[in-house]
Amino acid sequence: MAAPYTPPVDNPDGAYLVRFDEKGQPISTRFEMHPNVREATSAAMLLDNPLIEENVAKRDFPSNPRGSCTGRTIPGPQDNSYSVVQNCLGTWLNQNSGGDIGDPYNRGGVFYCRQGDTLLAVCLYDQQYIAGSPAEIQTFNGIMDQDCGSWRSGYVFIKDWNKTYWRTTWGEEICGNDGGVRKQVYA
After folding, report:
1. Are 109 and 58 in contact (CB under 8 A)?
2. Among 55, 69, 72, 156, which residue's CB has the most CB atoms within a 10 Å radius?
3. Which of 158, 167, 162, 155 is nearest to 179 (CA)?
C-alpha cells in the first residue's frame, strides 16, 4: 500500500508517471512535454502521433459519480495553464490507453501534468492496463464545474473503474491511497 501522494514542489513543469515500490515509496519518471502541448489553447490539440478516433475508448461515467471539492482556486482561462495540463493528460491517455502498466504485482499509479501552479492527474488503482481519453477529462470537468464550481479544485472517483481524476493547484495531496484503499467518496 502506498501513502497519499503529494508531488514535490521543486518538480519542473511537465508530465510525470509515479509508481510505488514494495515499501510504498514513490518512484517518479518525468516525460518531456511536446512543444505543442505547452502552447495548447484547447484540450482538442494532440501530439504528432495521436491514436485514430476508432481506437480511443469512449465510455460514459458509470454510477453517476459526484465531484468532491477541495476548495482551491485553479488559475482561470486567461492563464492557459489548465488548457496545457488538460491537453497533456488527454494526449498521454490517447497514446497509452490499452497499454500495460507494467509490474503485475504492483499495479496502478499516478500520471499527472503540471504547468505553473496547475496540476491535473489520473489515479489508477490496482489496474494492469491504462484506460482513459480526453472525452473522460471533459466529462470530469463538467462534473467538477457543476458540483464544485468553475476553476475550483477537487476530484471525481469512478468506483466502477477504480480510478480518480483530480484537478488542483501545486502542493495538494492527490489520489488518496494507491493500492486499493481509497479515501474518495463513493458515488
Report:
1. no
2. 156
3. 162
Q: Nearest 5 degrees, angle CA 128-CA 133-CA 134? A: 150
Percent helix, strand, coil in the chain, to 5, is 20, 30, 50
CB contact set of 74 (below 8 Å; sequence gap of 6+): 82, 118, 151, 152, 153, 167, 168, 169
Sheet bearing 67-73, strands edge to edge: 26-31, 14-20, 108-115, 118-125, 163-169, 152-158, 67-73
- What are the angstrom distances between the C-alpha of 10 and each of 26, 99, 140, 170, 172? 15, 29, 28, 10, 14
Rounded Cα distance between 172 and 86, Å, is 18
How far CA 80 is from CA of 48, 55, 127, in Å, comes to: 21, 28, 32
pTM as predicted: 0.78
d(CA 147, CA 20): 31
- Give how far the C-alpha of residue 5 lies from the chain's centroid of Cα atoms, to the nearest Å: 13
Q: Which three cell numbers stand for residue 29?
A: 519518471
| DSSP codes joined into one string, 53-112 | GGGS---PPTT---EEEEEEEPP-TTT-HHHHHHHHHHHHHHHHTT-B-S-TTS-EEEEE
Q: Per residue in 86-134, pLDDT tens?
A: 999 999 888 888 877 665 555 678 899 999 999 999 988 876 777 788 9
